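for the recovery benchmark. tokens below, seq after
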């Protein structure tokens, strides 16, 4: 598999706080790769940097071999990277359809309507609620909408930040099943998720972040069996 995303030596600061300290990893075309780590490890900072919301002080980010550092966020979307942010961040006062339309704001091609129908195929609940104001949806429905909105931009690489946050266990399983389906349909995924077991169950590979450093990497099956990972992130003693 060819490398779609290559991150090397990334240093990111919040003021004087050194949040990422030389982070390096790669995501190959067709993969689901997960970033694991406790709160403050640098996972969300990494995604925000890839989306162009934070400017690193050092390092490189290559998408299909071309640097995307310094490119405005909306142009990064045009290049093929779309993020589903932590907390969903849907447009509460707009309807479901209007939210999905906003996901396609960079597009002028004739296939937008067809892509909306594909989103409704993946998320039948959204089709039932298509005229409903988004702020009145349940938490699970809002997460579906946030992912569907991102898919409307036709991303090559989808960044998911804590998609299971605040959801009931049954809905969490449903969301991860959908993430797998989206990947099988051809979308490469970089996943940040506190539920490490669920993340490792769907991901091909993983990287463990600790206070801004990558401290471990490997295939998901190996990370699931690693004693350190099991104790620190899978809740085993």
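predicted aa per position
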């Amino acid at each position: 598999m060819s490398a779609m995303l290559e991150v090397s030596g990334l240093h990111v600061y919040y003021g004087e706080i050194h949040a990422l300290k030389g982070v390096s990893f790669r995501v190959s075309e067709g993969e689901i790769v997960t970033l694991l780590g406790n709160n403050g490890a640098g996972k969300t900072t990494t995604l925000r940097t890839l989306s162009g919301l934070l400017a690193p002080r050092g390092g490189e980010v290559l998408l299909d071999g071309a640097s995307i550092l310094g490119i405005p966020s909306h142009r990064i979307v045009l290049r093929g990277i779309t993020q589903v942010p932590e907390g969903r961040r849907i447009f509460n006062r707009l309807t479901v359809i209007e939210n999905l339309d906003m996901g396609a704001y960079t597009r002028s091609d004739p296939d937008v309507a067809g892509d909306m129908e594909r989103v409704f195929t993946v998320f039948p609940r959204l089709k039932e609620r298509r005229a409903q104001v988004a702020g009145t949806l349940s938490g699970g429905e809002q997460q579906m909408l946030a992912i569907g909105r991102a898919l409307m931009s036709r991303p090559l690489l989808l960044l998911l930040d804590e998609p299971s946050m605040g959801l009931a266990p049954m809905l969490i399983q449903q969301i991860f099943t959908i993430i797998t389906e989206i990947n099988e349909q051809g979308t490469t995924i970089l996943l940040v998720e506190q539920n490490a077991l669920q993340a490792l169950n769907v991901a091909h590979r993983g990287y463990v972040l600790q206070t801004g450093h990558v401290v471990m990497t490997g295939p998901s099956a190996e990370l699931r069996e690693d004693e350190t990972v099991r104790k620190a992130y899978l809740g085993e003693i």
